[in-house]
Amino acid sequence: MNKLKKKYDSEKINHSNKNINHIDIKNQNNSEEIMSVSLNENINKKEIIFDIPVDITIELGKSKIKIKELLEFSKGSMLFLNQQKEDPLKIFANGKLIALGEIVISENTYGVRIISIKNS
């Protein structure tokens, strides 16, 4: 193949997402000879997905109070939650409930042990 020229198929390139889905490479001497290269096949899709950040939130409980009570908070104030200590904690990924867990303490840090995973 002499002097390969890359021709980007503008219909298959999504500029807003900066994703190149398809590239046609044409031989200048023979325009009928086209080699299609799919970039999606050459990139390990799992590696892309595995690098997406996820915010994990653990909900210990909830409480509803009035603004007056909130303004009266000081060091040592107590806020009681709607959960019992035996109740499982809710675990959220990007705001979606994904699992339930329980508090564990390892040395000087808290952790959460998964006790069930939501199916969906």
**Oligomer type:** single chain
Net shape: elongated
Structural class: mainly beta
CATH architecture descriptor of the largest domain: Roll
- CATH homologous superfamily annotation of the largest domain: SpoA-like
Helix content: 10-25%
**Content of β-strand:** 35-45%
Based on the model shown, name its key terms.
single chain; 120 residues; mainly beta; Surface presentation of antigens (SPOA); 2 domains; 4-stranded antiparallel sheet; 3-stranded antiparallel sheet; 9 strands; disordered N terminus
Task: Give the secondary structure arrangement, pairings included.
Blueprint: E1 4-8, E2 13-14, E3 19-20, E4 23-27, E5 34-37, H1 39-42, H2 45-50, E6 56-59, H3 67-71, E7 89-93, E8 96-106, E9 109-117
Antiparallel strand pairs: 1-4, 2-3, 4-5, 6-7, 7-8, 8-9
Fold and architecture overview:
The protein has 120 residues and is mainly β. It folds into two domains: 4-50, no CATH class; 56-117, Surface presentation of antigens (SPOA) (Roll). It is 12% helix and 39% strand. It contains three helices and nine strands. The chain has helices at 39-42, 45-50, 67-71, and strands spanning 4-8, 13-14, 19-20, 23-27, 34-37, 56-59, 89-93, 96-106, 109-117. The strands form three sheets. Strands 6-7-8-9 form a four-stranded antiparallel sheet, with no helix packed on it. A hairpin with a 2-residue loop joins β7 and β8. It starts with a strand and ends with a strand.
